Amino acid sequence: MSVLRFALRRLAEMVATLLGASFVIFGAMYLAPGNPASFLLAGRSASPAALRAINAQYHLDAPFAVRYVRWLGRLLHGDFGRSITYRTDVSRLLADRLPATLLLVAMALVLVLVVGLTLGRIGAVRGGVVDATILVTTALAVGTPSFVAAVLLQGLFALRLHWFPAGGTGEGLGQMLWHLTLPAVALALYLIGMLARVGRSAMLDVLGQEHVTVALSRGVPRHKVISRHVFRNALGTVLTTVGLIVSTLLVCTVLVESAFGVGGIGQLLELSITTKDFPTVQAISLIMVGLFMAVNLVVDLLHPLVDPRVAHAPGRSAG
């Protein structure tokens, strides 16, 4: 199957999956206890006429199927509805907050890939005390939840040493990068340990294969064998974990953004769930699902380039 046909098939699968996800996300919000009208009233009593007016304004009085079809139709036109909490268009809220979250996730992903792969490579190649030290360090990183790392980093580097801001996002790209450094480290720490261990294991497996032993016995420099054969072949295994890494980053960003006061969609999602802001929760949830699926598609397309032994065969789908 050609790459183009494979990509088109995967895109069709993405559309079908997003449609199913949209139904689940929309339905789950209305199965939750409470309702948006009670939040809008803020505990005040209201006449039946006032309740009817509120329900009509936010289309809460229509049957479930009608609400879903209307919501889906607006999504196709880029309309995510109106926020119940902020009384403004959800698309405007997302436009204001999404850049901070995307930059935070991108910074954390770069840290995970660079530091994790480097530690995994050093541990597999050097062995001995160096490998043991890396194993202990990565074990500690894996055992540290993101919110715990956020508290520790904030207390040490922001409040005690004053090297970084304790929260916020700042103005302009330069200040955003500075403000998001600690949140990115907190978000990436657990995944750095996980990827380092996965990369180390994959490289050790390749180091024990026959073609590597033969290349070394023929006098090929060890660093060339490591770079051209061992590391590249191990990347195929590492690449399959990228989807899991991105999904974990998207989930954990809610906790990290709240800890550091980052005005991203993670913090917005937490506030919206608390206040029963259904349109905002639905929009953010669907965006996260879409981002995760897009990353999986990119991974599937890149996999044959990293590992030529992998081909786009019929029936193969994203891992």
Write the layout of secondary structure elements.
Layout lengths: L2 H29 L4 H6 L6 H10 L6 H13 L13 H37 L1 H15 L3 H15 L11 H8 L1 H27 L2 H8 L4 H18 L2 H19 L4 H10 L3 H29 L13
Helix pairs in contact: 1-14, 5-6, 5-9, 5-12, 6-9, 7-9, 7-12, 9-11, 9-12, 11-14, 12-13, 12-14, 13-14
Membrane topology: Multi-pass membrane protein
InterPro entries: BPD_transp_1_N (IPR045621), MetI-like (IPR000515), MetI-like_sf (IPR035906)
Main location: membrane
What does this structure look like?
The protein folds into two domains: 3-76, no CATH class; 94-306, MetI-like fold (Orthogonal Bundle). It is built from 14 helices and no strands. Helices cover 76% and strands 0% of the residues. The chain has helices at residues 3-31, 36-41, 48-57, 64-76, 90-126, 128-142, 146-160, 172-179, 181-207, 210-217, 222-239, 242-260, 265-274, 278-306. Helix 5 (90-126) crosses helix 12 (242-260). The chain has 319 residues and is an all-alpha fold. The model is unreliable at 313-319 (pLDDT under 50).
